[in-house]
Amino acid sequence: MLKSISRTLLGVVFAGGFMVPHAFAETSLNALFMAQAAYSEDDVRAMTEAFTKANPGIKVNLEFVPYEGLHDKTVLAQGSGGYDVVLFDVIWPAEYATNNILVDISSRITDEMKKGVLPGAWTTVQYDGKSYGMPWILDTKYLFYNKEILEKAGITAPPKTWDELAEQAKIVKDKGLLATPIVWSWAQAEAAICDYTTLVSAYGGEFLKDGKPAFQSGGGLDALNYMVTSYKSGLTNPNSKEFLEEDVRKVFQNGEAAFALNWTYMYNLANDPKESKVAGKVGIVPAPGVAGKSEISAMNGSMGLGVTTTSKHPDEAWKFVVHMTSQATQNEYAKLSLPIWASSYEDAAVTKGQEDLIAAAKLGLAAMYPRPTTPKYQELSTALQQAIQEALLDQASPEDALKTAAENSGL
Amino acid sequence: MSGPFMTTRAWLLMLPLLAVMVAVIGWPLVSTVGLSFTDAKLVGTSGSFVGFDNYAKMLSSSNFQRTLYTTAWFAIVSVTAEMIIGVLAALLLNQEFHGRFVLRALMILPWALPTVVNATLWRLIYNPEYGALNAALTQIGVLDSYRSWLGEPATAMTALIVADTWKNFPLVTLIALAALQAVPRDIKAAALVDGAGPFARFRFVTLPFIVGPLMVALVLRTIEAFKVFDIIWVMTRGGPANSTRTLSILVYQEAFSFQRAGSGASLALIVTLLVSVLAASYAVLVRKTAGSAR
Predict the structure, then answer these.
(1) A61: which DSSP letter?
(2) Residue B126: which of B141, B148, B144 has the closest Cα?
(3) Cβ contact A188–B241 (<8 Å)
(4) Would you say the C-alpha torsion B177, B180, B182, B186 has a positive or negative sign?
(5) All residues at 6 or more sequence positions from A383 whose CB lies less than 8 Å from its CB, including other chains
(6) String of DSSP letters for B197-217
């Protein structure tokens, strides 16, 4: 009954619409974005404005939520058909595809896109051979360092291995420059898994083997052991275990950390004198490797833009996605997030002023290690987050914590 | 006018309201009960009948038992604190002094704040790097250096309880203050003349008059505390190492993050049942105390 009432109302509105002369039949799109890391809210609004200027018939309503709310909001809105375009993390296409949340847009991808976009970026939006959107944010965790503090400590080059990182941090600590030189994002959240994955990739570990958990031994265990050792030895800021990425940025740009693991966006923000006390002293390199196992380490922290299956305007929604992910748009806003387009990395307009970031990105983006691809990712991640916290808090040994996580992972 | 005619008219008058309640509460409740016996997913499959499997799995899981304990601890400590501080504040504000009306109005402020605002505010206060609590405690010499409050299991729960108490004790104060207005002055004066001390006057004169309304506050607050979600979700998201994960957060994870609507529904109903039992036993208690206070 409610439906028929709303239909009648709609009918009245439409009838009214016909009587008033309209230049355009306006289409309204709802798009869901996140309010942290990568492109800033202002950037997204400016990009969208350019789109609506070029397409006056389409109106785009933007909504920003914290990363932590992005997945659940997308899934819950599916019942009411709330969004046309959603931002999604690399870990969700498996689940979204299985549950029919995103439209398979494989056929809409042009040859130009196929050739122009970096191969690593495509893995962000693919599951089972199909594409569920366009990659948009191409990101991995980098090792940031404070050049001034390293200089004072007599360190000439940033660490190449994780062991070297510990040694250098110890020098900084012993010289009394900082009490706890390294800062991470180890809160009970996805952020902790991103740091952990970076280490897993360095130690040559594996999350799953034949669909079963394999992180509880080998590289997966080595990675957690490294975190716990770094935490217990006092080289790591103990508050890391309640930090998200923005907390890491605040500590680093206040000059209270010599080393930090964070996303691309921190580079230009920490170098902005209005925001940061360490502007001009920010160094960036790919996350280190492990002797005999890896040269560098990196994890795939990319995100894509997709069209929901409940969208009533999939064509307009796709048009918006194409605009947001276009090379022109991405080159214009390349300060907080780097383009998905290969040729952009040779474009002086993009690289100017951030040569160090580009150099680190060229290495890091090519080495991105994926988090496991499974429709049950949320459960696996929740179990791992708990394991990491228990090991850091000494409630369980890293080995036992990971074993429990494997049992609780739902796999 | 009484008898069957009145009864019929009363029911007739209530009919529209009943219809609305059946639509917005009754139907969802019934369909949740139905859902709890299936292995339905939030999106995709509507699931098949699994009997009491969901309930058995939930009740026997260590996650549930630990979370139940966490929730009970949160509810008992925060509600006790809120009741004690609430009544004490009401007694103070019931005194006659200049500006008490301003104070009474100010008192409601924490309670009037949206919980999310309150939680964000307290998260800033507890911030390990630049929080006000650390600054205050180091400056007066209680702490040597800044420390983490929400990142340590030992302090995270207490920190949450403090934040929740700060927000909710004004409700108790409000109810107690209203009840205090009804305490007859002559009995208080008589007790004073009889030489009763302040504690005796409170225990034997004031308390019997306010205990009824206080029981109502107690019921309301216990139910709310048992269902707590938002303040914890904003401040710790159940961490560190799940030490502040309450039943509602577990329901949310199960039903929405993991998308197991079936077992999420069973868990939600278990929580509902627990809260109903609490509320019912309080109701009996309220009747008894109301009877004995006369």
Answers:
(1) E
(2) B148
(3) yes
(4) negative
(5) A404, A405, A406, A408, A409, A410
(6) -HHHHIIIIIHHHHHHHHHHH
What is the complex's ipTM, to 2 decimals? 0.83
Q: Can you spell out the DSSP letters for B43-85?
A: SS----B-TTHHHHHHHH-HHHHHHHHHHHHHHHHHHHHHHHH
Six-digit token string for A130? 């199909």
DSSP string, A268-319: HHHT-TTT-SSTT-EEEEEEEEETTTEEEE-B---EEEEEBTT-S-HHHHHH
SS3 A259: strand
Instruction: Output the CA–CA distances (angstroms, integers) from residue A166 to A172, A236, A288, B210, in the order listed.
Output: 10, 9, 11, 63
**Domains detected in chain A:** 28-139+301-366 (3.40.190.10), 142-299+376-408 (3.40.190.10)
- What are the backbone angles phi and psi of residue B202, rounded to the nearest 5°? -65, -45
Q: Which residues of A touch B44 (CB under 8 A)?
A: 98-100
Q: Bin B38: left if φ > 0, else alpha if -120 < ψ < 50, else beta.
A: beta
Chain A residues in contact with B124 by the CB 8 A cut-off are none
* Contact between B152 and A393 using a beta-carbon 8 Å cutoff: yes
Q: Does B239 touch chain A (CB under 8 A)?
A: yes
Decide if B32 is inside a domain. Answer: no
Full domain range(s) for residue B143: 37-293
pTM listed for this prediction: 0.87
Q: Tell me, yes or no, whether B180 lies in a domain.
A: yes
Separation between Cα atoms, residue A148 and residue B17, nearest integer Å: 70
Helix or strand (DSSP H, E) at B224: helix B207-226
Name the domain count of chain B: 1
Residue with tokens 């577990």: B250
Domain containing B164 — which CATH number? 1.10.3720.10
Q: Tell me the β-bridge partners of A284.
A: A144
Q: Are B157 and B225 in contact (CB under 8 A)?
A: no
- The answer, for B28 touching chain A at a CB cutoff of 8 Å, is no
What does the block give as tokens for B245?
């994960």
Residue A408: which of A388, A371, A370, A382 has the closest Cα?
A: A382
Q: Measure the CA–CA gap between B251 and B278, rounded to whole angstroms.
A: 19
Tokens standing for A43? 């950037």
Residue B141: count other Cβ atoms within 10 Å of its Cβ: 7
* Neighboring chain A residues of B239 at a CB cutoff of 8 Å: 187-189, 242, 385, 389
In a domain, B191, yes or no: yes
* Contact assessment for residue A89 and residue A127, using Cβ atoms and an 8 Å cutoff: no
Residue pLDDT tens, chain B, 294 long: 556 778 899 999 999 999 999 999 999 999 999 999 999 888 767 788 998 999 998 888 888 999 999 999 999 999 999 999 999 999 999 988 898 889 999 988 999 999 999 999 999 999 998 899 999 999 999 999 889 999 999 899 999 999 999 999 999 999 999 999 888 888 888 888 888 888 888 888 888 889 888 988 998 899 999 999 999 999 998 989 999 999 999 999 999 888 888 999 999 999 999 989 988 888 787 777 665 544
Domain-located, residue B127: yes
